[in-house]
Amino acid sequence: MERYQRHVITHEGHPVAAPLADASVDAVLGAALAHVGGDGGRLLDLGCGEAAWPLRALAARPSARAVGVDVNGEALAAAARAAERAGVAGRLALHEGTVADYTADEPFDAVLCVGSTHAFGGLLAALTAARAHLAPGGCVVVGEGFWERPPTPAALAALDAAAEDYADLGNTVELVLTDGWAPVFGHTSSLAEWDDYEWRWTGNLTRWVLDHADHPGAAEALETATAHRAGWLGGYRGVLGFVTLVLRAAR
Predict the structure, then answer these.
(1) Which of 81, 94, 147, 158 could link 235 by a cystine bridge, Cβ 3.0 to 4.6 Å?
(2) Could you tell me the CATH number of the domain that includes residue 112?
(3) Which residues are CB-contacts of 148 (< 8 A; sequence separation ≥ 6)?
(4) Which Gene3D superfamilies match (predicted)?
């Protein structure tokens, strides 16, 4: 199965491609744009995928404008269709390309990079890139993994990760502070949010297999769903956490 097709199937019905519930997404966006008067603001999403975050912001703020950047043209095409259906296409600009190479003529009130810091080479590099796009007094929204507890060999194997890929929550926040940022809001995904995300991921893919048993990719998809579920339940459940921080520049 092509990777993007799998992404579409596994994330169907979930608000964003990260372990946050609807109310959590709204809370983060509200905190990020609280400093913007009225119902406007300019938002940039680096690694936007299907632009779930910008689309939600535009729906809630009738005068806001947003830009989404991603390397995946199929995801951007889906975002464009969703924007048309939502009646916000005139306020959403989409750019296909590497997020690190994106340039803009104007700064943004909020810059998002949720679950996409790897595209820059890590958390601090992503924050450096976001800072270059930020208007004075603006906010960066960054979503990053962290270790809820020391990772076991099973967790590392399931995630294809190394222990040094993440810090614990305290040290993750300390990295941000040392880099000159002040957290003004944060959301630590709950175990229930993680479980909902993972059950949907594995369940959606399993359901697709059952409904498309004759598809040439069905066996591979079932193997993927089975391995992912085993890696989650037997490896990183309760070990890998996810925090979404709203940050303002402290210096």
Answers:
(1) 158
(2) 3.40.50.150
(3) 168, 169, 238, 239, 240, 241
(4) Vaccinia Virus protein VP39 (3.40.50.150)
Euclidean distance between CA atoms 241 and 93, whole angstroms? 32
**Number of domains composing the chain:** 1
First to last CA, the chain: 46
Measured CA to CA, the distance from residue 143 to residue 139 in angstroms comes to 13
Q: Which domain holds residue 218?
A: 3-249
Q: Say how far apart CA 180 and CA 177 lie, in whole Å.
A: 5
